[in-house]
Amino acid sequence: MRFDEAYSGKVFIASQNDYDKADVVLYGMPMDWTVSFRPGSRFGPNRIREVSIGLEEYSPYLDRELTDINVFDAGDIPLPFGNPEKSLKLIKDYVSTLTKDRKLPFGLGGEHLVTLPVVEAIYDKTKDLTLIHIDAHTDLRDDYEGEVYSHSTPVKKICELIGPENVYSFGIRSGMKEEFIYAKTSGMHLYKYHVIEPLKQVLPTLSGKNVYVTIDIDVLDPASAPGTGTQEVGGITSNELLAAIHAIAGSKVNVVGCDLVEVSPPYDNSDQTAIAASKFVREMLLGFTK
């Protein structure tokens, strides 16, 4: 299924045209309806596709190339502007179709709230689910100025859905004091500032588990990713994020879905952020598709 009405004709490099034969389906979630600072991430999915033409299909890190797997790029889900609840329902309905058809869902955001309905759809299929969350922000608020559906709330809602003990957050360096207290007292696993070292320690304990991976591009330092809505200084490098992706790929976890969110092209005229994101997408495609 391809979203022809909203589809620009651009696809991620080496994507194939046969949905039925696809191992993984790439789809965009162009939503930034609830951002609290700078909108623009709704343009992220398509720009990541556009700049992917500059990539090689081969990964020297993984010794695989995109032609080794079947990737179908469905385009962007047509979401109703300014209507978060309906948008979330449309995303969940689409991902439910992918899980029913035994496709690996790979989402491009969009604001981080879009992760919530994807996890809900996957959790409906399998109750054994763990979240690996790589981000600068906790995303553990109950609401943002009274709005429960906010880019500041998805991880808290996922904790309530799958159990906080099944949620692992890495690279966190921003959030309200109450969010850090919740993380400490609820049983979830939150690792401040760093990603690769705590991740390497955690992955063996998750061996054999079904894992959903969500990466917010703002985990990178703004020097590496200026094109995002809520920058936080003190972040990791692009090399460290690649190492984290490869650590997950080389582990014995079962990745059942993933996304990369919060790329906002209007704030990066050089496309530095989108270009980095496209490489991360390539490595995730090759590393998470067995």
From TrEMBL:
PROSITE patterns: ARGINASE_1 (PS01053), ARGINASE_2 (PS51409)
Catalyzed chemical reaction(s): agmatine + H2O = urea + putrescine
Binding site for Mn(2+): H112, D135, H137, D139, D216, D218
EC number annotated for this UniProt entry: 3.5.3.11
UniProt-recorded Gene Ontology molecular function terms: agmatinase activity; metal ion binding
Coiled coil: none
Annotated TM spans: none
Cofactor: Mn(2+)
Purpose of the protein: Catalyzes the formation of putrescine from agmatine.
PANTHER family: ARGINASE/AGMATINASE (PTHR11358), GUANIDINO ACID HYDROLASE, MITOCHONDRIAL (PTHR11358:SF26)
UniProt family annotation: Belongs to the arginase family. Agmatinase subfamily.
Protein name from the UniProt record: Agmatinase
Species for this entry: Halolactibacillus halophilus
Taxonomy of the source species: Bacteria, Bacillati, Bacillota, Bacilli, Bacillales
